[in-house]
Design brief:
Strand order of the largest sheet: 3-4-2-5-1-6-7-8
Number of domains: 2
Oligomer: single chain
Shape: elongated
Order of helices and strands: HHEHEHHHEEHHHEHEHEHHEH
Helix content: 40-55%
Bound molecules: adenosine-5'-diphosphate, magnesium ion
Number of helices: 14
Distance between the termini: 71 Å
CATH class of the largest domain: Alpha Beta
Strand content: 5-15%
Radius of gyration: 28 Å
CATH topology of the largest domain: Rossmann fold
CATH architecture of the largest domain: 3-Layer(aba) Sandwich
Length: about 400
């Protein structure tokens, strides 16, 4: 090893491993001479064994350093996450008169279906729990009328707008026509614009929406990777107290044009605290939390609820807790005893934090976890899966039940 170049622990390990294999080859050679009349070379064998010992020692050292390095990195990451979550929940420094208005539900103009627009965020700080899948299928259920209203009437399609707030753009890629999406990306007509004021963005709200797969009553605001940059920039600005960056979505969505055009606005949030997810929350009436019914997932519910609770309290939000939704259960007919147990744990965790939310007596009397759940689907996804049937939420009874229960909870 050249002493002039300082190697990193992984490089040391790789180098030592190479030496190790070389030594092993030589040891085998020393022990099994090519000529069967020769004695094994004991002295050479011992010498090689010593080198091997040294070699292992170096690897051990490097492994220890590596372990230390990862521990430090983990601690640093934890500090960063903690700091950024406390940045997001920091009380606003704007004068009350300068805070963009949250229009209370009752003050909104009538929505197309005759009621008032409801703005709903689907949030969980864990990825892969089904936020996007559930949101997309609920759009399909509501926009095709696959739900019952309070009078038990079905088949009344609602106008729905869904907003992709994850820079990975899963919802966009699955629910918009590829060519339409390509054009929107090229023109920069995406959810990234929502993190600007209207004057900065220089686009009309309608220009940001594209059709949502084959459904005449649904529209989508797509997301792409440019959102990641913008989210980080907005975090830094808030951190350095240059700009209050948590109210953009109020500016865009609490407008008569949105209220008059849509019965529901759904935000599909990323599994992280970003400017977009905070802005969505600040503009929302309700938040629902998809989760898997496994013990392991209860931690994420706890983390998410604690953050939602703090945000609500410190930013004085109007958002209400809609409930947790179990996704990927084992059976269609009912929960297994273990799933029931985990449902109960989710319920206890949510109940712990519900005092942070402004709840009406009816809302707080509701169970924290919805009765409706979505079973695991094998052999294909729920959206554009291997079996090719797009958005089964418009037809499957489990989504019909879920849409109906959500509808009841947000009235
Ligand atoms: N009930 C389900 N049955 C089968 N697969 C599911 C189910 N819900 C979600 N998935 C799959 O799990 C993956 C993660 O789901 P997704 O909705 O993208 O999660 P999130 O938005 O929370 O990150 C996707 O591949 C999705 O198709
Ligand atoms: Mg998602």
């Amino acid at each position: 090893m050249s002493p002039s170049k300082k190697l990193s622990p992984p490089e040391i390990i790789a180098q030592q491993l190479e030496d190790f294999y070389e030594l092993r080859r030589e040891i085998v050679k020393a022990l099994t001479p090519s000529n069967r009349y020769e004695e094994p070379d004991g002295a050479r064998y011992r010498e090689l064994l010593d080198s091997l010992q040294e070699n292992l020692g170096e690897m051990e050292d490097a492994a220890r350093q590596l372990h230390q390095f990862y521990q430090d990195a983990e601690r640093r990451l934890e500090r960063v996450l903690k700091a950024s979550s406390s940045i997001w929940t920091r009380p606003t420094e704007l004068f009350p008169s300068k805070i963009p208005q949250f229009t209370p539900i009752e003050n909104r103009p009538p929505a197309p279906g005759g009621g008032k627009t409801r703005i709903v965020s689907f949030i969980n700080l864990k990825g892969g729990v089904g936020k996007t899948t559930l949101t997309a299928n609920l759009v399909a259920a509501f926009a095709s009328g696959a739900f019952r209203d309070l009078d038990g009437r079905a088949n009344r399609p609602a106008r729905v707008l869904v907003v992709d707030l994850d820079f990975q753009g899963t919802l966009s890629q699955r629910c918009a026509e590829p060519l339409v999406l390509q054009t929107a990306y090229e023109k920069g007509l995406t959810a990234t614009k929502l993190l600007e004021t209207r004057a900065e963005a220089k686009v009309a709200f309608d220009e940001l929406t594209v059709p949502f797969l084959g459904l005449p009553n649904a529209r989508l605001i797509p997301a792409d990777e440019s959102l990641d940059d913008k989210d980080v920039r907005r975090l830094n600005e808030l951190a350095s107290r240059r700009t209050e960056t948590r109210y953009y979505h109020r500016l865009w969505f609490h407008k008569p044009a949105v209220f008059e055009n849509y019965d529901f606005v759904f935000f599909d949030c990323p599994p992280r605290l970003t400017a977009s997810s905070v802005c969505a929350l600040v503009a929302s009436d309700f938040v629902f939390m998809p989760t898997a019914p496994e013990a392991f997932d209860v931690n994420a519910v706890n983390r998410t609820m604690s953050w939602l609770g703090k945000t609500r309290k410190n930013l004085n939000l109007s958002v209400q807790f809609g409930g947790a939704i179990l996704n990927r259960t084992n059976n269609e007919k009912g929960l297994t005893p273990l799933e029931e147990k985990n449902k109960n744990r989710v319920k206890l965790v949510c109940d712990d934090y519900r005092s942070f939310f402004q709840e009406s007596p009816e809302t707080s009397a509701r169970a924290a976890v919805l009765d409706a759940f979505i079973p695991r689907r094998s052999g294909g996804n729920y959206i554009n899966g291997a079996d090719g049937d797009a958005l089964p939420g418009a037809t499957l009874p489990c989504f019909h039940r879920l849409a109906t229960e959500i509808y009841r909870r947000i009235q």
